[in-house]
Amino acid sequence: MEPGRLEVRWIAGAEGAKVAQTVQEMTERIRELGPNQKMRDER
């Protein structure tokens, strides 16, 4: 897996706003990275 495509965070179920913010940030970062070339190269 390419660096930057996996992130682990500890977020409590009661922290809905933090979950939403984290997902939004990760989605933006992955879109900037573009398609996962490593997975395509391994086929």
Task: Describe the model.
With 43 residues, the chain is mostly helical. The protein has one domain. The two termini are 13 Å apart.
Q: What gap, in angstroms, lies between the N and C termini?
A: 13 Å
Low-confidence stretches: none
DSSP, total strands: 0
Q: Beta-sheet strand percentage? A: under 5%
- Derived from helix and strand composition plus strand pairing, the structural class reads mainly alpha
- In sequence order, what are the helices and strands, one letter per element? HH
Oligomeric state of this protein: single chain
What's the rounded overall pLDDT mean?
Answer: 87
The level of helicity is: 40-55%
Radius of gyration: 13 Å
Task: Give the total of domains.
Answer: 1
Biggest pleated-sheet summary: none
Count of helix runs? 2
Shape: elongated
Please render the helix and strand layout as text.
Layout: H1 16-33, H2 37-41
List keywords for this structure.
single chain, 43 residues, mainly alpha, 0% strand, elongated
Concise synopsis of the structure shown:
This protein has about 45 residues and is mainly alpha-helical.
